[in-house]
Write a structure and sequence with these properties.
The protein is an alpha+beta fold. It has 3 domains: about 280 residues, no CATH class; about 110 residues, no CATH class; about 60 residues, Arc Repressor Mutant, subunit A (Orthogonal Bundle), CATH 1.10.10. It contains 15 helices and 16 strands. Helix 5 packs across helix 6. The radius of gyration is 31 Å and the shape is elongated. The termini are far apart. Bound molecules: zinc ion. Zinc ion binds next to loops.
Amino acid sequence: MEFEPVIGLEIHAQLKTETKIFCGCSTSFGAPPNTHVCPICLGMPGVLPVLNKKVVDYALQMGIATNCTILKKNRFARKNYFYPDLPKGYQISQYELPIAKNGYLDIEIEDKKKRIGITRIHMEEDAGKLIHDPDHNMSLVDFNRTGVPLLEIVSEPDLSSAAEAEAYLRKVRSILRYLGISDGNMEEGSFRCDANISIRPVGTKKLGTRTELKNLNSFKHVGNSIYFEINRQKELLSENKEVIQETRLWDADKNRTCSMRGKEDAHDYRYFPDPDLLPLVIDDEWIDSVKKNIPELRDQKKERFINEYGLPPADARLLTSTRELALFFDECVKKFNEPKQISNWIMGPLLGLLNSKGITIEESPVSFENLADLLKLIEKDLISGKIAKTVFEEMGETGKSPEKIVKEKGLAQVSDSSVIEDIILNLMVENAGEVEKYRQGKTKVLGFFVGQVMQKTRGKANPGIVNKLLKEHLKKK
Ligand SMILES: [Zn+2]
């Protein structure tokens, strides 16, 4: 029997607000344990949560960017469970009335588009962090993360392979990053993902029993674990065994998933509306103002780079891989209107430089102004393309402007015909034999003379002029 996988993802994205969702504590990462806490996020009796407006703003942005319907009246609910990293004994989340639902986004797999439904997006608070200390046989808890705002983005079970799941995850992250509302950093835990996976015979509609893979913390683990889980379920069913509904964990060392606990159903959490928080009412004005401020996202940018700048799709894809890189390119083009040339310099030397230094475009020692200026120097024939590479390397080391480097190092191109002519005449005297060969028809000797002129001028002679003058003088009898 042929089976097809049915996959849905639940993504948790930490929002980049200054303060937590229901109190004024800082959200900054890496502070000493339990220093960013107050009675509210510690769940002391008698305190009242106050909603951070920025969180709502960010949730609206994500809802609109993913084509969701915004619920103008939504509300917070308590999700009740006990765990030592959850001081209140419940998590404030949204349940029956989330802020956004029924959206979609398009992914691309091998140039084929597929639309993935988004069931819902809701706001909630993060829990604290448990640190297990086996040396002292105890566990410690850090509440700094308690109350940090999260968006949970739940997809429809529209994904049907590990590759599609990964493409969808990357797409969601790209939107969050382009909006500037989340770091989307899986390694630091600001972007996390659970996957619901089941399989069913091809052609049937009924969903099979699903398992949930928890806390996948890298793109590689997402792909590998889903792939493994699909095959595990296929094997069970083909042996007439049952798939058990449960939560499973990915063991990256053993390259397999393993059972963690029986999966709880929603009713186990005893959700109910949080009586401390009023229903959240969002008016049209608020929605319109968020809509107006949604920046150009990656897909639109890619289209624009192809249509307006005439870039090949591969260039457009790479240049839009982050918002910052796309911005760098856009700014560069504003200063020097040769998009393909700029694209070549960014994709080649610039990304090479960033890679070798292990830094991002925001930290680039070469600014967009300086890159544009370098290309202008080539265009004006003030330096050759080859010297430009040398100047660029220096820019990468020192961050200096290309003009300054050319001046300091005396790299300006020699375009003065009389200077080049002198060098050529001297060379012809020194290499009379080679001149004779040329005149007998061995025109390949020209390359030798070009090389010599370049050596004498340390690569600075204008190649066009060198070629022209050499041909003239070598021909003469
Ligand atoms: Zn607090």
